[in-house]
Amino acid sequence: METDPLVPIEIYFQTSDLVVTFLLTLLGIAFGNLTIKGVGFGSSGVLIAAMVGGYLYGFEPVPILADLGIVLFLLCVGLEAGPSFFRAFKQHGRRYISNVLVLLAVAGVTVVGLIAITGVATGIGLGLFAGSFTSSPALISAMQFSPEEEVIFGYGIAYPFGLLGVILFISISVHLLRDRMARELAGRSQLHAAVYKLDTPEFHGLQVRDVPLFQEHDVVISGLLRDLSVRTASSSTVLQQGDILRLEGEPEAVATVGEQLGEEVQEAFDEGSELDSRSIVVENTSVVNRTLRDLGIRLRFNATVTRVVRANVEFVPAEDDALAHGDVVIAVGTPYQLDQLELFLGHEHHTVQRRVDIGSLAAVLFLAFSIGGLVVPIPGLGPFSLGIAGGALVAGLLFGHFGRIGNFIGRFPRNATAVLKELGLALFFVQVGLETGQSFVESLDWNAIYYAFYAVLFAVIPMAGSFLVGHFLMKIPVSECFGVICGGMTFTPGLDIIRQVDSSDRPVVAYSSVYPVALILVIALVQGMHLALVSLGAA
Q: For the chain, how big is the Rg over CA atoms in Å?
């Protein structure tokens, strides 16, 4: 019996630019997520994967995807920074913002001076700066003025050495200044909590606001246990003899107030509690940049704000801390109280759409491309244009600051903005990596050793200058100085090193206060350095 011959099957697969783009994006994200002690390449992993793909397989880039990526990324940077960028100069200008300006000014002088002295190509020098600061906005800004191959070459060499320089500088500085930081921590007034039973008859039947004892000593009631039920206490809460009160304030003040109320007891507040916890996004423009004390959340809603998450960093807020647009407030109260607080902080009537409005997104993109396409003749300098990168940033800042222009909303849900920003950066990195992968490898020579050394200098000198001026001239505490430095360099992992010594919210508040401003200023700094180098004849 004869068997039928096997029929050969051939499988064809047609590659496309989009298949290559998103395959490299997937591989790059996986590589960037690999971390050692919390430090990794992050979104730059996509650039590395694309450069490998461009070198090994010679994939061709798609310029229009790179342009779209630039616009999406910088547009979202502007949208995120817009609500707090202009207000931050007024709110933190005297200390934190001034210190960031020192950081960036020292960086600018260092980069321009070293490039002019050593004769390093301007594109490579600006790429070294972007890599030493591990700043994607600085990289994109540099590529608008210099050859992409040079910028990417400098960025690729400097990035790992920039990470290493920042980590070593902060680690060594924190170790050397540990005693000074300990003295600063000891000098701060630490809040203390204790539980007392109300035994004094004279306070029975009085409202909290009618007991001057609390205001005189700046002590608050953070919880009240009555009839086996835990509740919050507002200014209108009526005290009853036998109440179990949890007091918070400075240790001596709590002890003074507690002794007049009754005796200290050991009571668990967690059991039988009616309280709930909820995360609320601050989207109401009327509460932005107002302090918790000014808003009176505890008094108005009987709810307590326990933590705030800002720029992906969580901290315990003080009464004098102001809320920023996009903050995630973690509050404790009854379900009804939290419902009312959520309407107050993030009611959709005051704020953004709960989803991305396509019409508004199209309007923002149209404005970005329109501003970028304007060419203004300037006498003596010739035609001037912001380009698509500058147009996207300006459009994002305008919509982010005003929140609404006409019927178009410029504040999208935070998660949606983050996704669009990461998508834009990935699209841009893939196309640039494919274009520069081959030239990067061919350009490697012994000069790369010098470039790596320059990258460390570009990172360390500005940090040292900012710390010396901030701490010794502006009298900013050590941990807050490092918080400003990490925010100015948009380097979040550095906070983990600082918080090993100072676990309070102070370095986090300093970081999150300057972070959105630094994102914009670093872009302007790159443009300023390029103009300075042109005037010096180095470009």
A: 28
